[in-house]
Every structure is written in structure tokens, then in C-alpha cells.
């Protein structure tokens, strides 16, 4: 998978995190994501 993710990929990751019982920090650790990037993308995609 390329380093930069498409908006569709971020939507899928955000949905997976919301459906999981994991905190954002734990989810990001397991998926090798930056929590800062996760929160930034989630904020942009929700608005």
C-alpha cells in the first residue's frame, strides 16, 4: 500500500475504528498510523 492514502481508504479506516472496541490510539498503533493524521483526516472528512 502506498504511503499516502486516498480519501476512500481513510473513510474505511475511520469506519473500522468506530466499529472496533479499540481506542483511536490502539487502533492507530495496530494499523501503523499516526494518531495526528487519523484525527486530522477524520475531522476533514466529517466536515
Q: Give the % helix.
A: 55-70%
Shape verdict: globular
Report the total helices: 3
- Characterize the largest beta sheet: strand count, sense, and whether it forms a barrel: none
Rg is 10 Å
Separation of termini?
A: 26 Å
- Provide the low-confidence segments as ranges: none
H/E series, N to C? HHH
Averaging pLDDT over every residue, what do you get?
92
Broad structural category: mainly alpha
Q: How many DSSP-defined strands?
A: 0
Portion in beta strands: under 5%
Protein name: Transposase
Write up what this structure looks like.
There is one protein chain. It is built from three helices and no strands. The relative contact order is 0.17. It has helices at residues 7-19, 24-30, 35-46. It starts with 6 loop residues before the first helix and ends with a helix. The chain is 68% helix and 0% strand. The chain is mainly α and 47 residues long. The mean pLDDT is 92. It has a domain at 7-14 and 23-46. Helix 1 packs across helix 3.
Notable traits:
single chain; 47 residues; mainly alpha; globular; Transposase
TL;DR?
The chain is mostly helical and 47 residues long.
What's the arrangement of secondary structure elements?
Elements lengths: L6 H13 L4 H7 L4 H12 L1
Helix pairs in contact: 1-3
Protein name: Transposase
